[in-house]
Design a protein that fits this description.
The complex is a heterodimer of chains A (345) and B (252). Chain A has 345 residues and is mainly alpha-helical. Chain A has 15 helices and four strands. The longest helix of chain A is centred in the first third of the chain and has 26 residues. Chain B is mainly α and 252 residues long. The chains are: A mainly alpha (345), B mainly alpha (252).
Chain lengths: 345, 252
Amino acid sequence: MTSRLIFRVLMALVAFAVLARIPVGFDVGFKFDAGLAVIWAFALLSLVLLTGYVGQISLCQATFAGIGAYTAGMMSATFHVDYIVAVAAGVAAAFVLGLLVGLPALRLHGITLAIVTLGIALVFDRYVFQDHAFEWLTGGTGGWRVGQTSMFGLQMDSSKHLMGAYVVLLALFCVVALLMVNLHESGAGRRFRAIRDSELAAATMGVNLTRYKLLAFGMSAAIAGMGGAFYPLVAGSVSPQPFWLFTSLQFAAIAVLMGVRYVPAAALGGAFMAFVPDVLTRYGHGTLFGRPYEISYDWFQIAVGVLLIVQLITLPDGVWGDLRQRVLHMRSAVGGLGGRKVKVA
Amino acid sequence: MAAFAAYTIIGLSLGGIFSLAALGIVLIYRTTGVLNFAHGAMGMFSTFIAWQVFYGWSHPFWPGWLSTLLAVIAGLVFAAAMGLFLEFAVFRWVRTREPVVKAVITIGVLLALQSAASLIWKNNQYHLPIYLAPQTATITISDVGVPVGRVGAVSWMLGSLVAAVAGILITPFINFDTTSLTLLIIDALAAALIGGLVSLPLTVLGGFILGLLETYPTIWIQSLGFPRLVALLVILAVLVVRNPRGFAVAAK
C-alpha cells in the first residue's frame, strides 16, 4: 500500500501549502482565528482517536487542552525555555493526565464513562484552574503572559509573529493527522477498532485491554494537549475561560456533528468552531425592517445544539461521513474513476 | 456546635434538592433509556421562566402570594410543555438507537437551552426570595409519588417538572445564573449513580449524603470548587465499588 501512503503524504503537503497561505492577506483578528482553528482541530482530532477509533466517550477534552496550555505557559513564563520545549512539556503533562483519566475507564464504558469525564471536567474547570492552591500552575487570576519568547532559537513575539505560530501549528497538525490516518490500518489501529466494536471479543482475541485503553486515553490527551500548548503563544496569555466545561461539551458536539470517525472532519470542525462565531459577531449586526439586531456567541452555540440534534436523527455518520458516502456513491454509480465499491465503516 | 447544626440543615436541604433532580434523571432513564445530561439545563430554563413571571411580569399591587403562585405555576407549566415537546420533537425519533447516541443528543439540548437562556437573561447573578420554597414543596411530593407508566411522554413531562421544582427550590440558597443551575446536573448524576440509575430510595439517600458531604468541608475550606471535587470522588468511589455491568441492565 505504498502508493496510498505517498498519495496521503502528497495530500497533507498540498493541504499544508494551501492552508498556510490563506490567512496571509487578512487582519490580525482572522489570523488569530486561524491559529485558534488549528488548536480546536487538535482537540477534535483527539476525539477522532478516542471516540471514532476506540469507541470511548470523553467529555473532558478541553481539560486536557487546558493542562497543555497551562503547563506550556508556566514553562515559558517562569523558566523561559524555548517554546517548543514548553510545548513538549505541555504534551507530556496532558499525556500523564490522560493516563490517570484512563484508569477509571478500564472499568467503565459508555454512559458511565461520560458521567465520570464530565465530573473531571467540572473539577478542573471550577477547582484546579481557578483555586489559589494551584497558582503555581495557573499563574493566578491573571494567568501567564507569554510576550517575548523564542521558538527553535528564533525570536517570537505573540503579537507580531502570529503567522509564524500558525505555520508551526499547522505543520504539526498535518503530521499528526497523517499519523492518525495511517494508525487506522496499523496493528494498533486494528486493536483499537476491535475494542470499539466489542471489548469482550477484543479481549478474547488476545488484545490487551488495559494497555490499549490506557494508550488511547494517553495519546488522545496528548493530541488535545499539543493544540492547547500553543494557546498561550497564539493568544498571548492563558485564562480558564477557553478550557471550561462548556468547551468540552462543544468539542463532543462538534466532533459528532462533523463525523467523529474521520480525520478531515476534525479540521473542518476546528475551522467551524473558530471562524463561524467570529464572522457572526463581526458582521451579524445591523438593522432588519427598522429594528436593530445583533448576533452574539450564544446564537452559535444554539445552532450547534440544534444542528447536533437534527444530525443525529437524520445523518448518523456526521457531515463529513455523509458527504464522503455520497461522493463514493456517485463514483461507483458512474463507474468511471476506478469504480471502487462503496466501503462504509 | 451551633455552626455544625446549621451546616447539617443546609446540607440536608441541598441534599433534598440533589435527590429531587436525581429522581428526574432516574425516572427518564428507566422509562426511555435516555440519560439526560440536559436535566439541569431544563430545570434552569423553567426556573428562569418562574423568575421572569415573579419579577418581570407580575403587577406591583398584587399580593406576594399571588405573584409567587403565578410564578411557580408558570414555571411548572412551561416545564411540562418543554418535556412533552422534547419527547415528541426529538426523542421519539431515536427510540431504537444506542443509549450513548441518545445521551449525546441531550448534550445538544443542553448547549441549546443554556445559550438560549444566557441570550435572554444574560450572565447576571439572580436571587429569589426564600418564601418561594415552602409553597412549592407540597407540589413536589405529589409529583414524585405519581406512579409512572412506560410512556415516554409522561416520564419526560414528569422528569422536566421535577427538574423545574428542584431548580426553583435551590434558588433561595444560591445566587444563581444560567451556568450554575445547568451544572446542578453533576451533583444530580452523582446521586443517581449511588442508586445505580435504577433504585429510587438509594437515589434519595445518595442525594442527602452528597448534600452533607459537599457542605461540611466548607466549614474549614473556603473554596468554590472544593465541593465539586467531593462530588467527583463520590462518583468514582461508587463506580469502582459497584459492579458497572449493573448499569447496562437498566438500559433496556
